């Protein structure tokens, strides 16, 4: 990605969050979901980097290295999708402002809106697919990676599960207003399938990490 002030991922964390909080049309929930998921991917690689090179984990080193390469590619995809989600929303934002004074203008607005809604659904669908890729790998980092970073694997699972649901909502806000209900139904089915499979998987990994960390702590607060 070129260094350009128009590129969202080149903003500082503070500038990004301030822009997100503003009334600017982008970034929005889709870009936020992609960014959050990219942090989940980065946490997986953190676990990997704390695992690789340690004698204790020599038997899983090659497996972890392979996953780290895959996670890195997914992270870069998600970073790009932060921008692509914003870029795809701009035409839709403009379409909402099209005139509707005449029958011809209303028909043209409907046509453009439909086209823009379909295009605006593409980025959040791809964000969801990339998040599913991450969630499918987090369990290995959690179960085979360095135990001192198991909480980081749990955080990755928690935020990726949330990001998956966030990206799904950005699909559904577009499909809700599509005239082509067959097209909308197909997107909805695909999104719901990912939610049904990978949402609970991420939740399970988080619960597993929670259980590991709480083991033996019963009654510790009161001595």
Task: Describe the fold and architecture.
This protein has one domain (24-213): Formiminotetrahydrofolate cyclodeaminase monomer, up-and-down helical bundle (Four Helix Bundle (Hemerythrin (Met), subunit A)). 75% of the residues lie in helices and 0% in strands. The termini are far apart. It is elongated. The protein has 223 residues and is mostly helical. The longest helix is centred in the middle third of the chain and has 42 residues, at 103-144.
Shape category: elongated
* Distance N to C terminus: 54 Å
Could you say what the CATH topology is called? Answer: Four Helix Bundle (Hemerythrin (Met), subunit A)
Structural domains: how many: 1
What fraction strand? under 5%
Classification by helices and strands = mainly alpha
Q: Based on the coordinates given, report the CATH architecture.
A: Up-down Bundle
| Low-pLDDT stretches | 1-5
Rg from C-alpha positions? 21 Å
Extended strand count? 0
Largest sheet: none
Give the full name of the CATH homologous superfamily. Formiminotetrahydrofolate cyclodeaminase monomer, up-and-down helical bundle
Order of helices and strands: HHHHHH
Number of helices: 6
Q: What is the top-level CATH class?
A: Mainly Alpha
| DSSP helix fraction | over 70%
Mean pLDDT: 95
Pfam families: FTCD_C
GO molecular function: hydrolase activity
Domain Cyclodeaminase/cyclohydrolase: 12-192
Protein name: Methenyl tetrahydrofolate cyclohydrolase
Offer a few descriptive terms.
single chain; disordered N terminus; Formintransfe-cycloase-like_sf; Four Helix Bundle (Hemerythrin (Met), subunit A); mainly alpha; elongated; 6 helices; 223 residues
């Amino acid at each position: 990605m070129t260094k350009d002030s128009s590129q969202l991922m080149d903003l500082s964390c503070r500038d990004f969050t301030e822009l997100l909080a503003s009334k600017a049309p982008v970034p929005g929930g889709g870009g936020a979901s992609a960014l959050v998921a990219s942090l989940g991917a980065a946490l997986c690689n953190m676990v990997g980097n704390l695992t690789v090179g340690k004698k204790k984990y020599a038997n899983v080193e090659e497996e972890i290295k392979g996953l780290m390469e895959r996670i890195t590619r997914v992270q870069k995809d998600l970073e790009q999708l932060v921008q692509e989600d914003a870029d795809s929303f701009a035409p839709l934002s403009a379409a909402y402002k099209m005139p509707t004074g005449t029958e011809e203008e209303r028909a043209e607005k409907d046509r453009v809106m439909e086209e823009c809604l379909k295009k605006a659904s593409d980025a959040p669908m791809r964000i969801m697919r990339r998040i599913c890729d991450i969630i499918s790998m987090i369990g290995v980092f959690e179960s085979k990676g360095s135990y001192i970073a198991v909480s980081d694997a749990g955080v990755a699972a928690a935020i990726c599960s949330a990001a998956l649901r966030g990206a799904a909502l950005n699909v559904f806000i577009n499909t809700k207003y599509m005239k082509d209900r067959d097209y909308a139904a197909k997107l909805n089915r695909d999104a719901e399938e990912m939610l049904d499979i990978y949402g609970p998987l991420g939740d399970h990994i988080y619960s597993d990490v929670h259980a590991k960390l709480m083991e033996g702590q019963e009654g510790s607060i009161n001595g």
